[in-house]
Design goal:
This protein is α+β, with helices and mostly antiparallel strands and 160 residues long. The protein is 34% helix and 25% strand. The protein has a single domain, classed as GAF domain (Beta-Lactamase). The protein is built from four helices and six strands; from the N terminus they run ααβββαβββα. Strand 1 and strand 2 (63-70) form a beta hairpin.
Length: 160
């Protein structure tokens, strides 16, 4: 497959996800390098949706450690239960935060981030990483993002 993502102009958010999913399925192969897959996934999501920040935190030594991402510099490690990412990891469930200033214990890596969605990535029923997406707009994420980002996380879970 070409390393180019093709999305029809003027597509709705759902249509963009529907067009992106099969392309990611061919781009993110379990036989390829994990870091390369995560880097390409974050680049594709940033390119298609123009998110403020999109990237991954990997579970290493009982912490979340920053992995490949697109956007401004970010926090390098997060403890379980801390911030949105640490809470997602600890609870093993997707978290949508319409206003990060109202999330108890939010870790502000960038003051420009206003809303966030964090999706766990599973391997053998264990959270092994999280996909973190931030927006500079309030209430940017919804159930459509949750549905499709969880599908992308499932594709990525096979790459670990």
């Amino acid at each position: 497959m070409s390393e180019t993502i093709f999305i029809s102009e003027n597509s709705s958010k759902t249509e963009k996800y529907e067009q992106l999913l099969p392309q990611l399925s061919h781009l993110l192969l379990p036989s390829d390098d994990l870091i390369a897959n995560l880097a390409n996934c974050s680049a594709a999501l940033k390119e298609v949706f123009n998110f403020w920040w999109v990237g991954f935190y990997l579970v290493k030594n009982q912490k979340l450690i920053l992995g490949p991402f697109q956007g401004p510099v970010a926090c390098t490690s997060i403890l379980p239960g801390k911030g949105v990412c640490g809470t997602c990891w600890q609870n093993a469930e997707t978290i949508i935060v319409p206003n990060v200033d109202e999330f108890p214990g939010h870790i502000a890596c960038s003051s420009a981030s206003k809303s966030e969605i964090v999706v766990p990535i599973f391997k053998n029923n264990q959270v092994i990483a999280v996909l973190d997406v931030d927006s500079e707009h309030l209430a940017h994420f919804d159930e459509t993002d949750k549905l499709y980002l969880e599908k992308i996380a499932a594709i990525l879970g096979n790459c670990f």
